[in-house]
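quick q for whoever's on today - can somebody do inverse folding on this one?? i tried earlier but teh output was garbage lol. tokens:
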């Protein structure tokens, strides 16, 4: 017997300039639309896809001259899912939280779900060859002072991202990395696993553009 066909829904993505609201062409990375695969798409402001209902999707968006961004789309049974992605122009001091570069607790090992975020960061650096960034590592360390182990671990995490970019031919002169430890936790007293994971993050700060 044939497999029962999954119900389909339409994913409609629009990319606009955050300041003017005008459509702009951009490249996408889409994680979760197909099983275990990151889909890349290029060069349009309007995208339409058919996908199975009830999927959690993560859409990364990148364009020359703009900060990259990531948007999560929660699973639903709506026949059409509309997503608007707003991009901000690059400026020194602008920062992006790579909240999906997830690490195994107490390690600098990157989890599989981080692939799309690393790819998006790489595309951002490739599309904006003048941009220089600082990669900041952060750990989850509630109730503790910021001790040497936290600094070392967060530095190792930032270096993991730095190494990934180097291996993919991004010039070392455009990159620096630093470990912040637990000094800037998003949730100083995390109440659940999600908040603890959000504290274990990497932030990208534009130093020059």
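ok took a stab at it. sequence:
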């Amino acid at each position: 017997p044939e497999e029962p066909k999954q119900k389909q829904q339409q994913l409609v993505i629009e990319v606009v300039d955050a300041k003017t609201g005008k459509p702009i062409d951009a490249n996408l990375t889409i994680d979760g639309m197909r099983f275990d695969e990151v889909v890349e798409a290029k060069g349009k402001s309007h995208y339409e896809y058919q996908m199975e209902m009830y999927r959690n999707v993560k859409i990364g968006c990148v364009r020359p001259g703009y900060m990259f961004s990531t948007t999560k789309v929660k699973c639903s049974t709506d026949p059409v899912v509309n997503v608007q992605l707003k991009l901000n122009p690059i400026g020194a001091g602008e920062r992006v939280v790579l909240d999906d570069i997830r690490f195994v607790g107490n390690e600098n090992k990157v989890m599989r779900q981080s692939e799309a975020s690393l790819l998006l960061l790489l595309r951002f650096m490739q599309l904006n060859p003048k941009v220089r960034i600082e990669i900041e590592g952060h750990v989850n360390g509630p109730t503790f002072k910021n001790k040497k182990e936290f600094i070392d671990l967060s530095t190792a995490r930032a270096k993991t991202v730095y190494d990934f970019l180097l291996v993919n031919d991004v010039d070392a002169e455009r990159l620096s990395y630093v470990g912040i430890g637990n000094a800037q936790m998003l949730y100083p007293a995390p109440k659940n696993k999600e908040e603890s994971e959000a504290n274990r993050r990497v932030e990208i700060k534009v130093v020059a553009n």
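fwiw The chain has a mean pLDDT of 90. also Residues 11 and 81 are 5 Å apart (CA to CA). so keep that in mind when u check it
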